[in-house]
Amino acid sequence: MDRRRFLASAGLAGASLVAGCGSFQSQSTRAPPLVENRPDGTYRPTHVEGMGMAGMAEAGDYMVGFGYSFPHRFWTVTGTDAERVDIRDADSVHLMATVWDPETEMVLPISAGVSIAIERDGETVDEKSPWPMISQNMGFHYGDNYELDGDGLYTLKARVNAMDERRLGPFAEKFSEAAEASVEFDFAQSALDQLSYEEFPETQGERGAVDLMSMEMMPTSQTPVAGELPGTLLGTKKGSDGVYAATWLSEADFLADGESYLAVSARTPYNRVPLPMMSLDGSVEAGGETVFDDALTAALHPDLGYHYGAVVETTGTDPSVGVDVVAPPQVSRHEGYETAFVGTPSFSF
Amino acid sequence: MTDRGISRREFAKSAVAIGGTAALAACLDRGAPDVPEGADDPASLPARQHAWNDALATDDAGNPRMAHHHVLLLLDYEGDGTPTDADRGQVEDALRSLERAYEWSSDGLLFTLGYSPAYFDRFEAGPAGVEVPEPEALAPFEDPAFDTPDALLHLASDHESVVLAAEEALKGTKESVNDHEMAATFEGVFGVADRRTGFVGGGLPAENQDVDGIPDSEPVPEDAPLFMGFKSGFEGNQATEDRVTVDSGPFAGGATQHLSFIRLHLQQWYEQDSREQRVSKMFCPAHADEGKVEGVGENLGTDSAIDECPEDVVESGRREGVVGHSQKLSRAREDDSPTILRRDFDSTDGGEAGLHFLSLQQSIADFVATKEAMNGTDVSENSAVGQRTNNGILQYMTVERRGNYLLPPRSLRALPPADPA
């Protein structure tokens, strides 16, 4: 079976394009039983679902895209605990908002998040702030299950908050203001029912991941290949199934004389989806001295992607770096990620 | 979010939420309470309008318990320019009539009348000796509208019929209350720009949970005093009335008042978060680990045991990935005491689950500092705690409106000049 059979419906409101998905199944069977004895790490989920495009719009410096799919089960994360959220009878769709920079097409994980209100004929139908969330095929997005009121035309309103993450280089002047956007969403149950749905009875529970989907209208979140990160790659380490690539920049347009930059890019294995909302401590020794020992700051740079970094007062080029995960990513998880990245490993580079 | 859609729900509104003489009549049909009469001499009442604590009932643990029913009237002065002495006399007479009719207690009637920056704009300078700034957004992730009436009247009682009758009497649609004739009304002096209502106390939120923002599963516990399912207003978490009182200048004996309207979105709170997550987010993760909070938290007594949460809130947040609402607020203390006195209550105004967050403090700056501690922006910096996710209860609320007021001392409550000296 071709795993890459998820197609976004490319902005045709309501009309979803499905490539060869054979069986239509009732909603109750779209949450097959969880894999027994799930591994402590990224694993292939029981199934994946396609996504329809509800619309996209510009909001200040941001672009916002709305996708929808069948209601999902997912896990919220508090500390090192993942708490399962089951599908309610009332849930109509899993709504996903993706926020990106239209210039670089980089998906932006914003800690202050997004609020979504769904309206119909001027009345509020559902309203809540979706969780920051990672999914093997959808990457990082803001998602939750929402309740609609049958077929019809809805307005999806999103407020995207300002980023309080550190922005570097060309991003320094951007994303500092909240912005709002709305799209018209022509929802039809029949269109939702035609989204692809694929189970993996043979491979579910195996270590691995389904591929990140590629969409024409909307970028998906992916950190750069470790070897393509700017600066000198200090190494790539793995812990609690997360992959940590550390790079050292002696020069960058955002650095002053005498400064260097440590960047740690935390990502999922297989798909390189960024792991936002972690607490990381870092230490740097250069020339036999400890030149940095503090928290790393979540930051964004067009070439480094989302990462955790620190400006270090040194011109040393051969640093020894220690990184401690103090708290794992507090992003919610779609199936296959809920047992991964919940530990607090330490690394040295 | 501005330009929001209206609520899609038709719900059974309480009499106070509906308001008016018909609601009052319906309310009295269910049985007229025996309400104690007020003071023969209103001059014997406390000099502070906000001196409520001694007039409130107490709960089993000894915390002052807020009156159950509330009406807020946002009022505009109908005269031109600065108020006339005649208008002042009329307002004072009307309020004294209420004080004669009802005991100054939650079994009778409690009220305050405050004045906004917009009110003081008609004078040459702002109120003497007290800063009452225009309201502003108090977090990067909020976008409130600002209330700009001239005055804010807060009526509170354990009896629905009392707040309704007092309101109607002031509006002039009812000639007497509790068998006492009104000597005057607000007619011709104050017009009502907006009316807001609410309730607090065990049972009331559960009774009124059929609104937007609360899922249909009716998750609010039967005995919860507030929609979020936990008790608040512990004596140990509240400023004293002394602490919030303006201590010098012509408005000494007054206080500043902040009123915000916050909409609650509790589907995630009740249907996705576990009890442990709720306790972590409302109090602190240590309380969740130790099972410190039973039910709605009556077992906590007179404080929420926040000194048993880790003291370094930023470090605790970084390590735990979550930080509690009370835990964050514990940082806003001065000399180990809170600086604001909450008198907030829930609401179903507009068919939406909401909270009228009313607080008193000596200076609006005390409120701003407390709100800043609650924002936890410093906790989310360099930390797994999001700016709203796992950051107390910020995920579940939207601040819709803010307004600031000066509560003058009782002697100056009727259309005060900016500089009474």
Automatic annotation (TrEMBL), chain A:
InterPro entries: DUF7350, TAT_signal, Tp34-type_sf. Residues 228-348 form the DUF7350 domain. It comes from the Archaea. Pfam families: DUF7350. This is Iron transporter.
Automatic annotation (TrEMBL), chain B:
Residues 311-335 are annotated as: Disordered. SUPFAM superfamilies: Dimeric alpha+beta barrel. Transmembrane segments: none annotated. Pfam families: DUF7405 (PF24152). This is Tat pathway signal protein. It comes from Haloarcula rubra.
